[in-house]
Amino acid sequence: xxEAHYRxxxxxxxxxxLKFDSEASAGRSAVFVDDAHSLKxxxxxxxxxxxxxxxxxxxxxxxxxxxTKALRxxxxxxxxxxxPIKLKPWSLEEIDDYAGSSLGxxxxxxxxxxxxxxxxxxxxxxxxxxxxxxDSGSGSxxxxxxxxQGLTELADELEEIGGISxxxxxAMAVGDVAGVHPFPALGGAGGDFDxxxxxxxxxxxxxxxGQLIPLVQQSLLAAAPRYRVQELQKAIVDALESQGPxxxxxxxxxxxxxxxxxxxxxxxxxxxxxxxxxxxxxxAALYADAVTAGTNELALAARRAQAALALGDLDTAGRLLDxxxxxxxxxxxxxxxxxxxxxxxxxxxxxxxAEVYRWLGPERVGSSGPLAAxxxxxxxxxxxxxxxxxxxxxxxxxxxxxxxxxxxAQGIYDTLGDRPQQAVATLIRASNLMTSSAACIPLPDxxxxxxxxxxxxxxxxxxxxxILDAALxxxxxxxxxRPRLMLLGAWVAMQEGHLDQARCAIDEATExxxxxxxxxxxYLLDVLEVAMARRTGSAIDLVTAxxxxxxxxxxxxxxxxxxxxxxxxxxxxxxxxxxxxxxxHIEEAWALLAKLGNPTLWAVPLHWSAxxxxxxxxxxxxxxxxxxxLVRASSHSHAASAFATAGRVWISVLGSxxxxxxxxxxxxxxxxxxxxxxxxxxxxxxxxxxxxGKDMSQLLACARGLNPNTGLSQxxxxxxxxxxxxxxxxAASPTPEQGKLSAREYEVAHLVLQGRTYREIGETMYISxxxxxxxxxxxxxxxxxxxxxxxxxxxxxxxxxxPGSTD
Length: 807
Fold this sequence. Notes:
By secondary structure, the chain is mainly alpha-helical. It is built from 41 helices and three strands. β2, α2 (41-50) and β3 form a beta-alpha-beta unit.
C-alpha cells in the first residue's frame, strides 16, 4: 500500500538498496528494506548511509528481536527524524474489510470473529486463512475455516518463519509452556528456550498472554505424529514435576490436547477446589479438563455440580447429581446431597430437598444436619428436623461456618415455638457469622434471607432491613447470592411503601442475574410486581403482573419460607376475582402449617391476608376463623394483636360505623408491625366513608402520613371538595407550560391519562370519588372543553412532555 502510494506520487521505488547509490541518483527515491533484523552489519551500515540524502526516503521493516548493535544504531538514527510505527494485530473491522475486499463479498460476523480468534488478528495469518477460502469454499460459515492440508503446510513454514526448531515449537504447542521458566530440556526440543520464546514472539506466533496463536498451535499438532506428541507431553510433565508443582496452565493445555495422566488430573482438581468458592466458572472448566485428563468422573460429580449451581445452571447440576446419587457408595456423597437439596430449593421445591436428606439419613448426615433441618422445617417435618439436628451435634466442627449453619438451623427451629424474638436474634447471629466466614457453600437458603423472612413475619421490618443490608455489604453468599438478597430487599422496601427503592432493587437484581432467575426467585420477583401494581392502583399493571405470577406459582410448591408472597397473591386474587384459581395453593399452605402445629409466627400474616381477601370478596362469613386465630395469638404476638385490632376496625369501617380515633390507632398499629400501606389503606377507606368533613380530613392526613409514596406526609390535609394550598402528589410537579392546572389537578390528570378509574384515583390519592369528579369538572371549565373527549385531548397536550405520560 505504501509502495503504491509512492508510485502514484511519481517517486522512484527501490528495493535493491544494496546497489543503490544515493549520490548518483537523481530525483526523489523511496528505498524499502524488509526484514532489517536479518541483515549483516555491513548491509545495515549501507542503509544507514542513505539517511543523509534529502531526496531519499528510507522505509525499513524489522522485528523487535533479534536486534543487533548496528540495527539499534540505525533505528535510533531514524527515530531522530520520525517516530517508528508499531504494527498491531488487525481489529475485527480490519479483518472484515480485508476479507470482503479479497473475496469480493462480505462474510458473516461469525466468520470474522472466528478468524480473529484463530489468528490473534495477525495480518499474515489472516491472509492465509482468507486465501484458503478460494480453494475450500468455506467462507460462508465459521466451521472448517482451515483445511488439514492448510494446517500442515503452515506447520512446514513455521520453522523457517520463526527460526525455531520444529520440536521446540511442538513442545510449546503441546504444553502451553511459553510462560514456564526455566523450561526443561526435552531431548530433541532442547536448546535455549528463552531464545525460542523471544523468536516466537518476534515472529508474531504468540498471543499477548504468551500462548501460541491457536492457528499456529493447531497446525503444529495436526502435522506431528501422535507418538511424538505423547512423548513430549510425558516429558513435559516429568521434567516440570521434578522442579515443583506442575503449572495449572500447562496442565490445562496438556489435558485439552488429549493427554491422560493422573498427575495432571490431580493438579487440575486441586486448582478447581481452590477456585470453587470465588470463581465457579474457572472451577467448572478445571474440573472438566481434569476429567479429560483421566480423573474419575463420578469422583468429581459433586464438585462439578456445585460449580454449576453457583453459576445458576440448575439443569447441569441436576444431571451431574443424578448419576452420583444412584451409586450405593457414591464418593463425596454429603456434598452431593447438599448441592442436590439446594438445587431443589432454588427450583422452588424445598420438600424434594428434604427428601434427599431423608434418603441420606441421620446416620450419614454428619455436619450437614443443620442444612437438613432447615429444609425439613420449611417443608413441614418438625420431627425429622429435630432428628437431623441431634444427629449433627456430635460431629459438628467448631469452625465459624459450622457455628453459622448450626445457629441458622436452631433459629429456624425456634420459630415453631412461642419465642419468635429469640429466633430472630439467633438468625441475626447466624447471618453475621456466615458473612464473616466468607463461605459460599450450597444452602437451602442464605441465613440473611431466612432472618429477613422471619423478621418480616414477626413484624420487625427494620430488623429485616438491617439483616439484608449487612449481608449485602459483606457479600454473603458471593455473587450468586446477591440477586436473592436484593429481591428480598425490594420486598422490604415495598412493604414499607418505598416503591421507588423497591424498583431500584429489582432492576439491580435483574442486571446482576446474567440469565434467568431460579424458579424460586422468579416467583418472588413476579409476586413483587403484583404487590407493587396493587399499591400503585393501576388495574392494567395488576392484571399484567397477575398473569406472569400465575405461571410462576405453577412452577413452585408451597413452603414455609414463601408464605409472604402467597399471602400477597391471596389479596390480589380477591381483588381480581381469581380466588378460586389460587385455592389449591392456599389449602396446601394451611396443611403445611397444620403439620407444624400452626406456629404463630408463620401463621399470623397468612391469617391477616385471608381477612383482607375476605373483605375484598365481600364474604364476612369467611373472616371469622381467621379473626379468631389472630385474637388467640394476640397474647404472645404483637403482630397478631395489631392485625386483630385492624380487622375489627376494618369491619366497622365497611359498615360505616366507626370511631375516627380507633381507625387512626389501628392504622398506626399496622404501620408498627411493618404494614404501613395497609394502615394507610384502612385510613383512606374510612375517609371515603366519613360523614363529617373534619373526620375525612383527619383520616386522609393519617393515610398520607403512613404512605411514603404520596409525598404528602408534611402537607396540610385537603378539604373534602377542594385541594389544599401548596399540595404535591406522586406525579412530577407541573412546569410553567402546564400552569393551566393546579398541582392537585395536574396529579389527577396524570392518573386519568393512565387509564385509572375515579375509584382507583381516589384510592391512590386518598381522596373521595366525589373529589375526583370535582377536579375533573373544574379542569373542564378552566380549559373550555365541551366534552370529556375534548378534555382528555387537551390534557394530553399539556402533559405530553411529562415523564410517565401516556401520549
